[in-house]
C-alpha cells in the first residue's frame, strides 16, 4: 500500500491559465504561495515563501477555477505530488514538481476570494480536510 497526498493552504500567485488536452478536456494551471514564519536568534520575525505549481484536471474543479479563482485568492487544496521532465530550449531536461488535482478525492476550496471575485456559492466548496493516514 502507498499514499501520495499533499495539502496546501496559501494564496494564488496569478490568475489561472486554461488549456485543452489533445482530446479536448479542459485543464488549468496556477501557482500557489505558502509561507512559513519563525523568529531568528535575535528574536526578529523571518518569513520564507515557497511557490508551488498546481495543475487541475478534475473537470468540476476546472470549472470552479474558471469561475471563481483569481490572483490573491486564499485557498485550501488537496491533491497528489507529481514530477515530470521539462525540456529547455537548449535541449536539457530538468524535473518539475507539481500538485495535481485530477481525481475524485482532489479538493479545491476557496476560503477568501481574490481581487475581483465576490463570493463562491456554498455548493462549490467542500468540507473534506487533509488527514494523517
Automatic annotation (TrEMBL):
Q: Does the keyword Nuclease apply?
A: no
Domain of life from the UniProt record: Bacteria
Matching entries from InterPro entries are given as: NA-bd_OB-fold, Primosome_PriB/ssb, ssDNA-bd
CDD domains, per database record: SSB_OBF (cd04496)
Q: Name one GO molecular function term.
A: single-stranded DNA binding
Which GO cellular component terms are attached?
Answer: nucleoid
Q: Which UniProt keywords apply?
A: DNA recombination, DNA-binding
| Record-level GO BP terms | DNA recombination; DNA replication
Q: How does it assemble?
A: Homotetramer.
Name of the protein described by the UniProt record: Single-stranded DNA-binding protein
- List the lineage, top down: Bacteria, Pseudomonadati, Pseudomonadota, Alphaproteobacteria, Holosporales
